[in-house]
C-alpha cells in the first residue's frame, strides 16, 4: 500500500452512513419522542426523501441547504405517518437530529490516526453548520469541513469532488474519497480521485443488512475507518 | 460580562495579525533564505500590497483566492527589491509562508478555552487551503474554517460577516468578531455583530509598535485571546 499511501495528500469523507450512523441515531431520537410511529421505518422514510430533494435542487439551479430540505421532507413524512399535531418547536428540534448523529465506534480513532499523515476533511451534502455541530458533539477531528455548500453543487456533481482538489491546490489523484456508497465513489473516480470503500453493513439498521461486497474499481476496500488507517500505514 | 457571554454563540476570528504573527513569521523565513533584503522591510512591503489587491478583485467582480494575490504581490516586491534571480520553486515555496505563520503565544490556549463554550471559526481573507494548512501546523483548534472564499467576498464586504451568521443559522448579534484591527470590527459592527478587539502591539514588528488604544464602540477589549476567554468566563 506504500505507493498509494505516498501519493495521496487529502482524504475526504462522505458523512451520512460512512462516518456517522444516521439510521440508529434518528431511530433512537424518534423512539424517545414517543411518536405513534415505528422509529426505524420513520428514519428510512425520512432518508428516502433525500436524493430526490437534492436532485430537484440541482435541476432548478437555485441553491437550498440540506437543513431546509430535511425539514421539507420531515413535514411530508409526518403527514404520511398521520402525525399532524407535532408542534413547530418539536419539528424544529427533530429536524436538527441530523446535527446530532452519532459516529460509528471506529470513526474518531480512525480519523485521528489518518490525520497524523493526511489532511482529512468532510465532503458531505450536509450543510456547513450541520457538519460543524456534528463534529463538535461527536469529536470528529477534521482539519477542514467541506460541504456541497462550498461548491453550491450536491454530490454526485463533479464540482463537489473536484472542488476538494482545487481547495487544497492538489491534483484530483492526490485526493481519496472514503465512502460507504459505491455510487459516490464511482462519481469521484470519474473525476480522477482515488477511492476507499468503507463497509457499513448496518447503515439501514440491523434488521436490513446491506451488501458490502467489494467493487474492483475502488482503490481500497476497508472494513472500518481504523482498517483504512491501517492500510495507509497510519 | 455574563450577559454578553450568554448571548453570543459563535466567535469568528480574524487571522493575520490577530491569531498569527505574519510579520515575525515572514521576516524569519526571508532572513533564513539569505535574500539581499532587509527581512522586516520585505515583510512590510509584501503585506502592503494586500489591501489594494483585494480591492481590485472586489472591483472586477471575478473571484481570485489570496494565494494567487500573494504571489502576484511577491513577484512585484521582489522586483522592487531588485531580486530578479529567485528561481520559480523558491518563489513558490516563499509564497506558501502565509500557510506557515506562527500563532501568537496565547492563541492556542485562548482558542481552546473559548471552544469549550462557543463555536469558534476563522473569518479570514486567506483561502480555505491556506487556513487549513496553517491550523494543522499551528494546532489551531477551529470548529470550522470559514474564509472570504466561502462567500466570494473579501472583508470588509458585509456578505463575509453576515455569512458567518447564515452558516450557523444564528442572528448577527449572536456572532462576535475578534480582531486586532478596528476597521474590521467596525465593518462587522455595521452588520450587527458583536466585536472584541485583541491587542497586538507588535503586529508590524517590535521596531514599530502600533497603537492598541480601545475604541468605545467595541463590545470587548482584550489584551490577548486568553484575556478574551477570561472575560467570557471560559
Keywords, separated by commas or semicolons:
2 domains; 234 residues; globular; DNA polymerase, domain 1; homodimer; Rossmann fold; six-stranded parallel beta sheet; alpha/beta; 12 helices
Structural write-up:
Two copies of one chain form a homodimer. The first copy, chain A, is built from twelve helices and six strands. The longest helix of chain A has 15 residues, at 66-80. The first copy, chain A, folds into two domains: 2-21 and 102-231, HAD superfamily/HAD-like (Rossmann fold, 3-Layer(aba) Sandwich); 23-99, Orthogonal Bundle (DNA polymerase, domain 1). In chain A, helix 2 packs across helix 3 and helix 7 packs parallel to helix 12. With 234 residues, chain A is α/β, with parallel strands linked by helices. The interface between A and B is medium-sized, with 19 and 19 residues.
Amino acid at each position: 500500500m506504500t505507493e498509494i499511501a505516498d501519493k495521496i495528500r487529502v482524504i475526504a469523507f462522505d458523512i451520512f452512513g460512512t462516518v456517522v450512523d444516521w439510521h440508529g441515531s434518528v431511530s433512537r431520537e424518534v423512539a424517545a419522542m414517543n411518536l405513534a410511529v415505528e422509529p426505524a421505518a420513520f428514519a428510512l422514510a425520512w432518508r428516502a426523501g433525500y436524493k430526490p430533494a437534492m436532485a430537484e435542487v440541482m435541476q432548478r439551479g437555485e441553491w437550498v441547504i440540506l437543513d431546509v430540505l430535511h425539514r421539507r421532507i420531515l413535514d411530508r413524512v409526518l403527514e404520511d405517518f398521520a402525525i399532524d399535531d407535532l408542534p413547530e418547536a418539536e419539528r424544529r428540534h427533530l429536524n436538527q437530529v441530523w446535527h446530532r448523529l452519532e459516529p460509528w465506534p471506529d470513526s474518531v480513532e480512525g480519523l485521528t490516526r489518518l490525520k497524523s499523515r493526511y489532511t482529512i476533511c468532510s465532503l458531505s451534502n450536509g450543510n456547513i453548520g450541520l457538519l460543524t455541530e456534528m463534529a463538535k458533539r461527536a469529536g470528529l477531528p477534521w482539519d477542514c469541513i467541506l460541504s456541497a455548500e462550498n461548491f453550491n453543487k450536491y454530490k454526485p456533481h463533479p464540482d463537489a469532488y473536484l472542488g476538494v482538489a482545487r481547495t487544497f491546490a492538489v491534483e484530483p489523484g492526490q485526493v481519496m474519497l472514503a465512502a460507504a456508497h459505491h455510487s459516490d465513489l464511482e462519481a469521484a473516480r470519474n473525476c480522477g480521485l482515488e477511492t476507499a470503500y468503507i463497509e457499513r453493513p448496518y447503515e439501514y439498521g440491523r434488521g436490513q443488512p446491506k451488501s458490502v461486497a467489494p467493487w474492483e474499481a475502488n482503490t481500497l476496500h476497508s472494513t472500518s475507518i481504523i482498517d483504512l488507517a491501517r492500510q495507509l500505514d497510519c
